[in-house]
Amino acid sequence: MKKKVLAMTMMAAMIAAAIAPAASAEEDKVVKLALQGDSLTWQQEIVDKFEAETGYKVEPILIPADQDMYTKTMLLMESADTCPDVIAEDGFMVKSDAAAGKLYCLDDALADWEDLSKFDAAMLEGGKGVDGKTYAVMCSTDTQILYYNKDLLKAIGIEGDWQPKNWQEIIDVASQLKEANADVEDFIPLFMYASSTYPEETSMRTFQLLLSGTNGEWPSQLYDEAEGKWVVDKENLLTTLNFVDDIFNKSQVAETPAQAADSSIGELLTADYMQNGTVGLYVTGSWTLGQFATQYPYPEAMDVWGCANIPTSDGQEPGYTTMSGGWTWAIPELANNKDGAVELLKYLCGYDGILARVMYNGEASPRTDVAEAEEYLNQTPSAIPFTKDQLSYAHFRPSVEGYSSITTSFTSAVESVATASATPEEAIATLQEEMIRQFGEDNVIVK
Fold it and tell me: Which portions of the chain are predicted below pLDDT 50?
């Protein structure tokens, strides 16, 4: 009996041993790709090509593009059981995630990848950690633009190209638009993000965009790179938040708090308000016009909408400001299939992968060869020609360790002023307290 049991045990072990390699080999051919749920559209053709040419199978993990997107992505990377092999990583997260040991260093994996020479040098820097090593590859970039409805401006006496010289001129024109369209239901003279419903949009496209246009050299108004310390620049913060207070509470030319907090307002602006004359001025990313060629068809967009630079607060040098961002592809440290992940990342960041992405969603190309492609340059509607001129005065978020936690405080400062729950001075005091709480008094410069 014992011999029979032993024989059966040995046979089971042999079967298990025979099956295990096959299962492992099958698993090795699966690459888990985590990305925003609405972005698979422009990746699908590249994913299909990757599968056909390599034999790998891509398993998408779709993450809703909402305010919890970053938290959900972080949670996925906490365990090897849930960790994707490739992730869509917002550029501002790279340095902090790399410093926290969450991202896989790509230096060796991409050492022989000739395509790296096709990327703009500044874009390559966007994928590096504080240690100078590469942890991600940029797949898109953008700038921020003040879009204006030409027809609505013409109706108040402004014809042709419009370029405000300072922030007060924006308020003045928005006030005229408000008066001229008083009978238009839900009309928004000027839209700027100002709600925790859109945390990073509010932090980047309102708080940091405005702050970068105050006195000083960015990012000195927020982060002292030489000292490695965060900054509470009260004078420039007050200039920033006074403008927010003005457009939301004094002149009341911005959207209502309810509109600002509407979880669908981003899509409504592009799919409805911009196409139907219910918004006059809109500060948002340079990719917006490109979306009218694919996602929200609007052939006459270029005839109706013009592009203006965001001026500095009083028109001081260099006259304009903008913030640049962008997305990257990265491989988590706990990825189970790093070999397959590296191959997929190369496809996604290859010429075809980047071209497919920027042609679909209107983003700017981080690859110099794609940036010279005729179909990229001649796409319409598009803000790409205008974007090129902005790069000389474009700024980036201080993508240092701690940014991913303090950025929500920047949003809170804007939201508290926009909703009149705090004065600009009170919001600054709260921000100062929060910075000191998070980083310690020795790591915060108050001036």
Answer: 1-23
Q: Which of 353, 380, 371 is closest to 292 using CA atoms? A: 380
The secondary structure of 60-78 as a DSSP string is EEEE-SSTTHHHHHHHHTT
Single out the residue of 238, 206, 233 nearest to residue 222, CA to CA. 233
pTM across the whole model = 0.87
Rounded Cα distance between 139 and 350, Å, is 9
Q: Beta 444-446 vs 229-232: how paired, if at all?
A: parallel
Q: Which helix (H) or strand (E) element contains residue 231? A: strand 229-232
- Strands in 300-383 per DSSP E: 305-308, 310-311, 320-324, 327-330
Condensed to tens digits (0 to 9), the pLDDT of residues 225-260 reads: 999 999 999 999 999 999 999 999 999 999 999 999
Q: What is the pLDDT of residue 24?
A: 53
Q: Tokens 């299909």 identify what position? A: 48
d(CA 197, CA 320): 28
